[in-house]
Amino acid sequence: MAKKTVQDVDVRGKRVLVRCDFNVPLDKNQQITDDLRIRAALPTLQYLLEHGAAVILCSHLGRPKGKVVEEMRLTPVAARLQELLGVPVCKTDTVVGDDVTAAVAAMQPGDVVLLENTRFEAGDEKNDPELSRKLASLADLFVNDAFGAAHRAHASTAGVADYIPAVSGLLMGREVQVLGDALSAPVRPLVVILGGAKISDKIGVIENLLNKADRILIGGGMANTFFAAKGYDLGDSLVEPDAIATAADLMARAGDRLMLPVDAVLADAFSAEANTRVALPTEVGAGWRILDIGPRTVEVFSEVIAQAGTVIWNGPMGVFEMAPFAKGTFAIARALAASKAMSIVGGGDSGAAVQESGVADQIDHISTGGGASLEFLEGLELPGVAALQEK
Ligand code: ADP
Ligand code: MG
Predict the structure, then answer these.
(1) Residue 328: nearest ligand to its CA?
(2) Which domains does the chain have, with CATH numbers?
């Protein structure tokens, strides 16, 4: 399981191809609205530069589907990266074209070249050996620091490792270590909190964690399908009829370890302006829907979190995008922050919710990979991780 990182190999005087996750949000004017992913890559890049490597960077951005899309060029990323790194970043116009060959041939230790959006090449998502080979021919070593793309077997995340030695970057290394330890050797009790809209998105995660966790706390829309399996009338709440049998089966197998909300915030419409009331899950009734966990549930869950050794959280407790239904999610974030437990948050919306809650700096690990962290929690081997050399 343990993979080599940049710290386990000699990078001095080498050309190093680094796969980053620079898939940043851009506004209409090509301005980066959140540069977190660029900042997250800095430790690995600084390490390589300080240790005498010449650094060739690559990343995808958006979904250009194998052709050049002007609005998806990495030009804004190059500019921001140059500011943050404090060294010139030479950006090429192609992924593996003649301008790349020329730029790379001229590189000295300490130089940084950023290749164009890898998904401008159809071969990236197809994991085409020809593209992998061309990328590999640029460098002596491949470093994968794109945890957010590690669940994809693409040329720039996995294929290139068929041709040159491949190790993980510092960001990827920490993701794999923290998530890996939490699953294989957690400080107990291990408490898993699951929420989000739909149980069907998370069945694989629940299955994998069912027998590992000491407690499983269920919130969010997902809890509704468990309530439905108990026969409650949930009014207009989001319920997945096709998953009721699965929910019943999971409850039976988990027994007391699985805890459902004991109260809920109800609304009479899916709107921030709706009328709301707090009620028992058995008292929803016609015209109302569950949009958050209630205050008593926050108390019960917070108590469990306070006693935990490790907490893994995926999925918001309510519709946190609307202020009246964000209280449960933010309260659970604060409980995690206050707990002495190793606290880990995975999932795209969950990470965003924790950032909004204002206590992100008190959480031990907020995964940078939404889909990748979910697949990791499902116990699946990520192709971008599998391709790396063992320690
Ligand atoms: P993540 O991205 O962290 O894995 P999900 O995508 O599974 O999380 O779930 C996030 C979504 O779940 C949010 O958009 C939130 O509004 C929604 N959600 C949470 N609770 C409910 C609920 N009770 N009813 C409907 N949607 C909900
Ligand atoms: Mg999501």
Answers:
(1) 1
(2) 6-171 (3.40.50.1260), 178-377 (3.40.50.1260)
